[in-house]
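Q&A log
Question type: sequence-to-structure
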Amino acid sequence: MKRSVTLMLVAVMVLIVAACGPASPQGAQELAKELHVYNWSEYIDPEIYAEFEAEFGVKVIEDTFASNEDLLAKFQAGASGYDLIVPSDYMVNIMNQLGLLAELNYDNIPNFANIDERFRDPPYDPGNKVSVPYQWGTSGIGYDADVFEEPPDSWGYLFDPEMAAPYAGKISMLNDPREALGAALKYLGYSLNSNDAAQLEEAKQLLLQQKAWVATYDSEGFEDLLAAGETQLAHSWSGDIFMAAVEAPQLWYAIPKEGGVIWTDNLAIPKTANSQYTAEVFINYLLRPEVGAKVSNYTWYASPNEAATEFISEEITGEPAIYPPEDVMDRLEFIRDVGEATTLYDRIWTEIKSQ
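Response status: OK
Response body:
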């Protein structure tokens, strides 16, 4: 969710135009003057907003959130006026079940054809009725390579007393109940989508024990703390670490051997949007190959936009911690809606944070 290291070659113009499709979808509807986006922090190159405004005359105004639960709470409290939001996979499912998301009109999003087949028709949104994949990545461990001779490739570095205690006060955890509990569950050998009360209690006790070593729970600035030397281990999202490593090359990232989270963040339109049409035009713009690549070159996350791959820096596409090999992918899980157990997750997280 950060800064650009764009290594883009100029291709033959005819090929680019053919891949992009029409400059804008055809239709009688008019674009709004403003597009209000609710996004994760630093999750798009700001130049994209400016370039969209220059081409379409629509000013993009962005607000940010720190977790899927914050996003959901905002809309459950009656938020309106946002035209585009960026929920993760399981949250798309939850918000759709709650009737918060608009069904997309793909006549206005012809560049959906650029999306890799593996990201179409996902289990959290069959037929992509209400969402379009935006970025994908993993959750694991960011670390200071000047401190570690070997990659800390186990959740034990965050949870095992012998492995974690030497870094007491130098560990940060994502301030996210599903991510934090999910990491503990994977370390214990369980599914990160467990709804078993005994397993969740075990994960809770592990996180309570861990609190003695944790400096902070942070989902927005963990990579900055790591770069500044204030922490040495960070429960992290992959792209944030790699983007921070551009200016702090001692930072690196490991996917734990026990497995972890694979996630997809998605573009979706609330039913309360001021202009669904304008939002769909913007989604279509983001799905242009060169624009999709510009997103990944900024965020250092993998792109579900297959047509964008040739424009993405080889530093990104060639890094196995960003585009993991199949044997690593097999150990990863999507966070899924756990139904009624969501209340249990929330209660446990509240208890952990309050003690």
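Response note: The chain has a mean pLDDT of 92.
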